[in-house]
Amino acid sequence: MRDAAEPWYDREPADGALAPYDLVGMKAQRQSDDVHEALSACFFPFVGPLDPQRHWEGWADCFVYCEYELTVAMCTDDGLEVRWTYAVEDDALFTACWTVHPVTHHPLIIAAGDSGVLYVVDAVDRTLLRALKGHGAAVYAVRAHAAHAHVVASASHDNTVRLWNLLGSDSPAWGSGGNENYAMGKADEGGCAVAIVGGARPGGHVDGVIALDFHPTRQLLATGGGDRRLKLWPLPPLPAPELDTTVPRPPPRISFPLFTTKRIHRSAVASIQWLTDNVLASRDIEELALWRWAGMDRYLGADGVIAPTDYVKWDEMTESRSFDILARYATPESGHYWRMTAVHYPFRPSEQDTQDPARVNAPLIIVPVVEAGGRDLVVHIYNPALAKSLPPPPFPRHFDGHDEGDSGVSTEDAALDGRHGPPRIVSANKPWRLVASDWKRVVAAANDALQPIGTPLAPSVIRAVAVSPRGARWIVAVGDGGCVLLWKRRGREESSTKTSIKARGPRNDK
Length: 510
Known about the structure:
Distance between the termini: 53 Å
Number of strands: 31
Radius of gyration: 23 Å
């Protein structure tokens, strides 16, 4: 039995237990406004050791969310403080991520949405640096590489992922010989295109790519799509962080993944994140799965990635069995795939970190859910380090490889589907919960004319969550009706740096 004196995140919670957070801020649209969905949120990640020169210490509590436009906000002891917004005419923005410019050291926001164009916005000057064009449909997710801040990946409904170099050269003018009707694969902005991943190729996704994540230390990219498939891709050598003045050339294609499976999920994969060197977390409409890729040592060594065209077997590219399920968590849903999870990673505490005894130093997976009844906005928090081992799954009743029956569904898929085969085994781990049941008090305390998302709040749905790095001091949830909820972790907080954070962070339009 675990000691009750252990940190809350290292203990198995009781049924319905609430995490030690307080709802301190809320934003919603006025009833007269056009109602939009807030679909993504993320905190500025370059803090602690990732900011050795202390260029960005004023941005530590800053986050961005997309509500058809960009909104930059700051978490304060008094609640949520919106700093500024950025809109793109005739485009709806779905997703955004942070990175930094390797030359100016300015924080950058990469945003994309319905048009498929990536917008690179300088968060200091609040100007558009460039627009990256090439996708043939909407972009659902963007990510910056943790070790190569100038490299960005985007996942699109056109079934591809594109890698971009933010320091790449511009495309030549049309008068210099370009053709406006050339193939979309060559339609990227000059030398910014590093590679095109997947697409209409044997190993690519056969439906839109919804989720992606860079491996933190290896040349790997994880993706998940509307086709239920999870894929791991080898990456080419990444460009150096310097301005590229070479003549633009068509980007190479990466057509063969190192790993593919649709055996883990039964519906569209909404999010995927690397947890450790070979363990990932992925989520569909019904479940969050923790799984280990068993092929890491087979394909990656001291010399890098083995050429997949020479060594990857066809089964690995189409339906691999090289994985182990570590845990599954049921995530109650309303039936829509767009639910974006967030991950807090453990870290090595610095001297400044030790001044906050309530800090969280553990892996946490934060999941937006819709519980039975749907009367409150709810977030579940899991510590994957506490995951209980699953028993081996029962042998499927029907298994004939990939042959399809009269229904058009392969008997292999039917065995994975609870309607046709054995039920899925779900881990018994219970979540810690965040519940926005006291939103009326928060709105009243803010003395704001903003109206809640409906009367009552029940019709609301959280679409995405974000957690502040190195301590999980703040958790943000965004969703329908432009709703933004801010929870603050309880405990003694540093007050000596708060003034400098407000002074040196993103300025307020007010």
